[in-house]
Amino acid sequence: MLIAIDKIKQLAKAYAPDTVQVRRHIHANPELSFEEYNTAAYVKQVLEQYCIEAESMANTGVVALIRGKNPEKKTIALRADMDALPIVEANEVGYRSKNEGVMHACGHDVHTASVLGTARILQDLRDEFEGTVKLVFQPGEEKFPGGASIMIKEGVLQNPAPESMIGQHVFPMLSAGKVGFRSGMYMASADEIYITVKGKGGHAAMPEMNIDPVLISAHLIVALQQIVSRHASPKVPSVLSFGKIEAKGATNVIPNEVKIEGTFRTMNEVWRKEAHQKIKKLAEGLCESMGGSCDIDIKFGYPFLQNDPQVTGVARKAAVAYLGEENVVDLDLWMGAEDFAYYTQQVPACFYRLGTRNEERGITSGVHTPTFNIDEAALETGIGLMAWVALQELTA
Q1: pLDDT for 12-32, tens place per residue?
Q2: Among this protein's residues, is 302 annotated catalytic?
Q3: Which of 59, 285, 331, 353 could anchor a disulfide with 182, C-beta 3.0 to 4.6 Å?
């Protein structure tokens, strides 16, 4: 039986006010990565209200199934992340964070509320579609090793195994009511680099008696830029940036060591591994050539995110039908990282963007800022569109 778009839109409109309240509750009670105990309990409570049984996974994760007719025919998964960031909220709103120093500044409250609202719509329609929808509420997207990797290890992509997966993320650069898609490579891998440059400290007025790790570090940071500019193919997006340098000396004191921290990002897993080796080799060689040494640790982070062309094509076509061509945009490559990428390496998936901006109301702040907020009209779009995309994926 084909379900009409108008029916989905009616349910989305009817359930939007409750979804807003769910989002506000989650926003007001944020929890850090892998500490989402109350959030997970709340998610299970809401699902139970919708007569959807849920179970725990990965300590603070939640998984549930909505079974339509002939549930074995096909399974798709919908994902939400639940963790917040260590940021002091500056918004003066009634649902401001009650946990000082913790804030939903990346929209995970929106993602969780949206999947819950979508679940409510699909639960109402379960006698009108074939297949199964798996709901995945994961912890720890903001913190290595990423909750997605843990959920996968614990079997979230099994019993039943989804044939495709859908993720939705807020996008404050796009107005509420609009969504964005990109097929193929979309988001970068993200590795953390920690370098300790070692020398011999002493009085700054007697440099000949010292091995200056500050000077070595300055040369090293400049030299490492050639890893991207002269070794990476121009066809492969790559970024090597350093955001923290710590040298505990003084105007007249050369320290014994300097600590440097940075990130390497790219969209090719083979080049990613090659780059790691080149970074290590260059760092060790340069430091030795200047009389010092270094310890270097590169933490292997999230892989790059690649949207499956077929799944993304179905989702984008569904969005055009639901919202109109004028409200569906094509996205550019994005060097940010997301642990949804782990899923895209395992199952055909689509990760798309939900517009949340409203310039007239001054809702323009970016994610990871103390003033990030959304136009809550985006929630009606979010729950209705995701429900419609899910139904189209089940029949694809």
Answers
A1: 999 999 999 999 999 999 999
A2: yes
A3: 331
